[in-house]
Amino acid sequence: MSRTRKNAVRILGPDVNLEEEVILDSKGRRVDQAYIELAMQEVEEELAKRAGRPSLTGTSAHSPHVSFRIPPELKARAEEAARERGTTVSKLAREAFEAFLAS
After folding, report:
1. From CA 103, how far away is CA 93, in angstroms rounded?
2. Smallest Cα–Cα separation from 34: which of 14, 25, 51?
3. H/E element holding 41?
4. SS3 (DSSP) at 90
5. For tag attachment on the chain, is the N or C end more exposed, with fewer CB atoms within 10 Å?
6. pTM for the full model?
7. What residues does each domain of the chain span?
8. Closest alpha carbon to 47 in 83, 12, 15, 8
């Protein structure tokens, strides 16, 4: 199942030329291009924190997903092995899959 979040943009007022007009925030700081870029970076970082686990692709692209069924006993063994190694079942499965394909 894939969830996509649509970015909603809501225009609150008219366009402004920040080089010509002086706009101050609630703390009296001038709003300029650097201010906006920093604010956007902070928003993106906050959204990234909420986005779940980091992508395995090394970018913000969605990681491919493989799913298969296993018997309860095998899952219990995998959970125990992952717990002993201090990792997750997903990472353990990725490593096992890579080792199998490399052989």
Report:
1. 15
2. 25
3. helix 33-50
4. helix
5. N
6. 0.46
7. 21-54, 69-103
8. 8
Whole-angstrom distance, CA of residue 98 vs CA of residue 74: 19
Contact call for residues 78 and 92 (beta carbons, < 8 A): yes
Q: Give the pLDDT score at 73.
A: 97
Q: What is the spatial distance between Cα 4 and Cα 53, in angstroms, rounded to a whole number? A: 15
Task: Give, as one character, the DSSP assignment of residue 24.
Answer: B
Is the backbone of residue 9 left (phi > 0), alpha (psi -120 to 50) or beta?
Answer: beta
How would you classify residue 2: left for phi > 0, otherwise alpha for psi between -120 and 50, otherwise beta?
beta
Residues 36-66 have pLDDT tens digits of 999 999 988 887 776 667 777 777 777 788 8
